[in-house]
Amino acid sequence: MQKSRTTGRDMSAQDAVAVLDRLRTRAPRVHCITNAVAQNFTANALLAIGAVPSMTLAAEEIGAFVARAQGLLVNLGTLDRERRDATAIAVQSAAAHHVPWVLDPVFVDRSELRAAYARDLIGQGPRALRINRAEFAALSGGEPDSLAISTYARGRNLVVGLSGETDLVADGERLVSIANGHPLMAKVTAMGCAASAIVAACLGVEDDAFRATAAALTIVGVAGEMASETARGPGSFAVAILDALHNLDGPRLMSHAKVN
To answer: Does residue 259 fall inside a structural domain?
Structure first.
């Protein structure tokens, strides 16, 4: 796993600002295999942050889409046969063309078959695993404290981005907590799916998967706080966070990031 090339803190607000700047200037292409509920919101979130989404599942072309992307998202939310087949081709293409990818193992706590499939995918080289507490417990068999996620990340040579009231990001050597966000984020479907897609976008512009994952979750958390300033409920919040992602700039991110 690639280690930090800087000294000092493992992750800082300034690192997130640098990743945001590169998102805006490079406009990375992100191919998304995601659930049917999440596709529209995820695509809009990627566009708002400055990335370029694609969503095809067609077996005859998905390999080419992934080969020309800078990041790949594999989300297991609606795990039908078409998405399983597409995932097999996409992951193979990502490996062949050195495209970093993130796995979002949605609902693995609801189905052991799904959990087994997710474990198989984890063995195929994702750079990051974006996960919640229940999903982590289902995959690891343990509670998601700092030591557990660090040990899990080290043993599988990936970065764990654990969402919660305070997000945790670990790669086995480094650990950071991110205290940004707002409760309304849990009331909008596809919010986590969009966050995972933004992790994939950040992987497309930042070689260090730890910094990319931490930057993505910081960006999303700060945007959630910005959206809450004008939202009146979940419906308006869903619109407001797209505007917040679009309008987020370096000074706002720098002043509001709560990274430790």
So the answer is: no
Domain residues for the domain of 99 are: 13-248
Give the tens place of pLDDT for each residue, 71-120. Answer: 999 999 999 999 999 999 999 999 999 999 999 999 999 999 999 999 99
Q: Is this structure's pTM higher than 0.90? A: yes
Determine, yes or no, domain membership for 4.
Answer: no
Average pLDDT of the chain to the nearest whole number: 94
Could you tell me the CATH number of the domain that includes residue 118?
3.40.1190.20
Task: Supply the angle between the helices 209-228 and 234-247 in degrees, to the nearest 10.
Answer: 130
Residue 254: inside a domain: no
Residue 156 predicted with pLDDT over 50: yes
Q: Looking at the 3D structure of the chain, how many domains does it have?
A: 1
pLDDT for the residue numbered 5: 35
Identify whether 66 is part of a domain: yes
Confidence band for 10, pLDDT divided at 50, 70 and 90: low
SS3 track for the chain: CCCCCCCCCCCCHHHHHHHHHHHHHHCCEEEEECCCCCHHHHHHHHHHHCCEEECCCCCCCHHHHHHCCCEEEEECCCCCHHHHHHHHHHHHHHHHHCCCEEEECCCCCCCHHHHHHHHHHHCCCCCEEEECHHHHHHHHCCCCCHHHHHHHHHHHCCEEEECCCCEEEECCCCEEEECCCCHHHHHCCCHHHHHHHHHHHHHCCCCCHHHHHHHHHHHHHHHHHHHHCCCCCHHHHHHHHHHHHHHCCHHHHHHHCCEC
Distances (CA, A) of 243 to 30, 39, 156, 228: 20, 18, 36, 11
